[in-house]
């Protein structure tokens, strides 16, 4: 009986060993497929809630940029049905959920005023998905059980709103539901570096990542404080410096992309 029980306990470990695209090993207790189902379900819920309203013209703008970035991902990630939506929220923020669901707040467009600056944010968020950071966080925080039971609850439609908000936050969209659950410093650094390279490969200027985070630092929120995205993204000064150092190395990647005809021209829909 005990042996039988141990088998159940060990079963999740079969999916626990994984490696990031950057070569770091990570703990994943929830299979990709389930994380993707949860991401899609959470996104549908966000679109349906009366706390959030979708802005179609800005959604199309974000979708155009996401499509250009996704075209440069490995096939496994291109296969997802990537969808971008803009939500009418003043707080400048963005997120990407497992399953390829991307959200921006319209308030972000006051800070990311050019296509390339918005691409810097979206590439960073897409990198969180490709590095499976949400799955890793859900596993690390022992939310795996919550994730699994919520997947069942979605089928049965009886998850409590608090559980759903916590899970959405764990997936990476905390500001939208008011539960702050920042990614770790290691996750942020990975997303910064991978995101900046992704944008260069897609034909967006990698220097725009530096401009964007400087603008974010200069921006103040509605209550006269810096945007919360900075408090969930550690050490803004250090990250700007790291991004700036990479610009020259990524310059040839960017120029090659432009020469190959990757010249995204997304319009903000004003
Ligand atoms: Zn991040």
Commentary on this structure:
With 270 residues, the protein is mainly α. It has one domain (31-259). 57% of the residues lie in helices and 7% in strands. The protein is built from 13 helices and 5 strands. The chain has helices at 2-10, 32-48, 56-70, 75-78, 115-130, 133-140, 144-156, 161-171, 174-177, 185-201, 207-218, 228-231, 236-259, and strands at 17-19, 25-27, 83-87, 94-97, 101-105. The strands form 2 sheets. The chain has a 3-stranded mixed β-sheet, sandwiched between helices. Helix 3 (56-70) crosses helix 5, helix 5 (115-130) crosses helix 10 (185-201) and helix 5 (115-130) packs across helix 11. The chain is globular, with a radius of gyration of 19 Å. Bound molecules: zinc ion.
Radius of gyration: 19 Å
Ions, cofactors and other bound molecules: zinc ion
**Structural category:** mainly alpha
The tally of strands reads 5
| Biggest sheet layout | 3 strands, mixed
The ordered H/E elements are HEEHHHEEEHHHHHHHHH
Helix content: 55-70%
Main β-sheet, spatial strand arrangement: 3-5-4
Helices, by number, come to: 13
User: How many distinct folded domains?
Assistant: 1
Rounded mean pLDDT score:
83
Rounded to the nearest angstrom, the distance between the terminal CA atoms is 66 Å
Shape: globular
Estimate the strand proportion.
5-15%
Low-pLDDT runs: 1-14
Record the SSE blueprint.
Blueprint: H1 2-10, E1 17-19, E2 25-27, H2 32-48, H3 56-70, H4 75-78, E3 83-87, E4 94-97, E5 101-105, H5 115-130, H6 133-140, H7 144-156, H8 161-171, H9 174-177, H10 185-201, H11 207-218, H12 228-231, H13 236-259
Parallel strand pairs: 3-5
Antiparallel strand pairs: 1-2, 4-5
Bound molecules: zinc ion (ZN).
Zinc ion binds at residues 124, 128, 183, 188, 191, 233.
């Amino acid at each position: 009986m005990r042996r039988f029980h141990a088998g159940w306990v060990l079963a999740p470990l079969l999916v626990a060993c994984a490696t990031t695209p950057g070569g770091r090993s990570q703990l994943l207790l929830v299979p990709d497929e389930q994380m993707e189902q949860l991401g899609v379900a959470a996104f549908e819920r966000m679109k349906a809630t009366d706390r959030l309203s979708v802005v179609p013209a800005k959604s199309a703008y974000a979708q155009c940029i996401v499509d250009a970035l996704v075209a440069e991902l490995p096939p496994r990630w291109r296969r997802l049905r990537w969808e971008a939506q803009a939500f009418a929220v003043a707080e400048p923020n963005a997120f990407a959920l497992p399953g390829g669901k991307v959200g921006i707040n319209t308030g972000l467009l006051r800070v990311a005023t050019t296509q390339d600056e918005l691409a810097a944010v979206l590439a960073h968020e897409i990198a969180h998905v490709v590095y499976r950071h949400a799955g890793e966080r859900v596993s690390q925080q022992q939310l795996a059980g919550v994730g699994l039971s919520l997947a069942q609850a979605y089928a049965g439609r009886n998850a409590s709103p608090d559980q759903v908000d916590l899970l959405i936050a764990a997936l990476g969209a905390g500001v939208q539901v008011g539960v702050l659950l920042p990614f770790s410093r290691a996750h942020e650094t990975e997303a910064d570096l991978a995101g900046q390279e992704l944008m260069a490969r897609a034909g967006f200027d990698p220097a725009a990542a530096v401009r964007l985070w400087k603008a974010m630092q200069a921006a103040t929120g509605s209550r006269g404080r810096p945007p919360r995205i900075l408090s969930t993204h550690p050490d803004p000064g250090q990250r700007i410096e790291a991004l700036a150092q990479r610009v020259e190395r990524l310059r040839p990647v960017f120029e090659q992309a432009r020469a190959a005809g990757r010249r995204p021209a997304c319009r903000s829909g004003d």
